[in-house]
Design a protein that fits this description.
This protein is of the alpha+beta class.
Length: 390
């Protein structure tokens, strides 16, 4: 799926995009302080299925390829919130001495199932709840009320907690076969609507202990984590890519790139990560642009990049890219749409150092700039944000 999605994004011309797996997004959405080597259990109890997955957060090298976690153990059941609705459905019919084959019941079955789902949700937050009376064609109405204790007894009678225990234990046992015990699990993260049921949360706390189980964001943890990841929040407290400034190399007569921030740099920084002088390219230049590029991972010599090229006759052939071509294709211009310019007044002379600049990284993972005009002595920028790093 990831390969397909990557291909679609590239074919659509998306030069920069980020992918994150669901367990990692859930961990990020729960605000877990994630470090390589951490082990989590993701308990996903949704509308149609129950899954437990023990995952290991991978090293940063693996994360850069998009694989942020590795599944150590996994187990599942075709058991979800809809099955719980059916149990309530049958129990309500029993209370009202009805059968699901009755004509009156068949006519209202859809409406009753909707009420059963609503009842289940209400009992997750209230001590008691009742369905809205449903009129029957033959006269009268179908009614029912439950306490939370009665609902939990119904779940127990249908062996829900046995199913949960067996599913979780199976996932943990698979992880144990790979050398990771239950004690290695840092946290249990509950996702899915059915994870809101208090007795389900209690079952997990009895298994792992109350301090390990997190259940306050079952509906939006994955979405929150994915959104935070796209916005630049990451798993590590240091920079994940190399970043460079583009400049004109007069000897080559073309652009070159100087690395400002190396992958692995911790942030925020008190001292500058880079210091350099900016020179004008020609006499009378008034605006000196600061172009910042993210440098992607280049392939090694043992795995060179190739490109499919079609000649005028329509025949296709593979052409190996040069090191320079590979570098050009691995670069992404971070501030192309929001450029930063140093304004020289009076205008600068070609080749003469005009601005002394220092780069820092702030607590929000932004590359910031301090720039001083060497001719006038004036401060042009003071910790001005240029781009957000990842």
């Amino acid at each position: 799926y990831e390969n397909w999605l990557t291909g679609v994004a590239e074919a659509a011309g998306m030069l920069r995009f980020r992918l994150i797996d669901e367990p990692s997004a859930a961990a990020l959405g729960y605000g877990a302080h994630i470090q390589p080597g951490n082990v989590y259990l993701i308990f996903d109890f949704g509308g149609g299925t129950l899954h437990a997955s023990v995952i290991l957060m991978e090293s940063e090298e693996a994360a850069l390829s998009g694989k942020r976690c590795r599944v150590l153990g996994k187990a599942g059941r075709t058991l979800g919130g809809s099955r719980l609705d059916q149990w309530l459905f049958q129990e309500i019919l029993r209370h009202n001495q009805c059968q699901d084959s009755d004509e009156d019941i068949r006519a209202i079955s859809t409406a009753l199932l909707v009420e059963c789902e609503r009842l289940k949700v209400q009992l997750s937050f209230a001590d008691s709840a009742a369905i809205s009376p449903i009129p029957l064609a033959g006269g009268g109405a179908l009614q029912a009320a439950f306490t939370r204790a009665e609902f939990e007894d119904l779940l127990d009678q249908n062996e829900l907690f046995t199913e949960i225990n067996q599913t979780v234990r199976s996932a943990v046992n698979h992880a144990r076969e790979r050398g990771y015990s239950e004690d290695d699990i840092q946290a249990v993260l509950m996702v899915g609507g059915s994870s809101q049921i208090p007795s389900v949360q209690r079952a997990l706390r009895q298994f792992f202990g109350k301090d390990k189980v997190f259940s306050n964001r079952p509906l939006d943890a994955v979405a929150r984590g994915a959104a935070a990841f796209v916005a630049g929040v990451d798993f590590y407290d240091h920079i994940q890519h190399d970043y460079a400034i583009r400049y004109v190399n007069p000897q080559k007569g073309s652009y070159d790139y100087r690395v400002l921030v190396q992958r692995g740099t911790p942030y925020p920084t008190n001292d500058p990560v880079a210091r350099l002088n900016i020179k004008a390219s020609y006499d009378g230049q008034r605006q000196l642009g600061i172009a910042i590029y993210e440098m992607g991972q280049q392939r090694g010599a043992e795995n060179p990049s190739v490109e499919l090229v079609f000649d005028p006759g329509g025949a296709a052939r593979l052409v190996q890219l040069t090191a320079h071509e590979q570098q050009e294709r691995s670069l992404f211009w971070m501030n192309e749409n929001h450029p930063t310019f140093l304004v020289a007044e009076p205008p600068a002379s070609a080749g003469e150092p005009r601005f002394e600049v220092e780069f820092y990284i702030d607590a929000n993972k932004r590359l910031t700039l301090v720039a001083r005009d060497l001719l006038t002595g004036k401060l042009a920028f003071d910790r001005a944000p240029v781009v957000r790093l990842t």
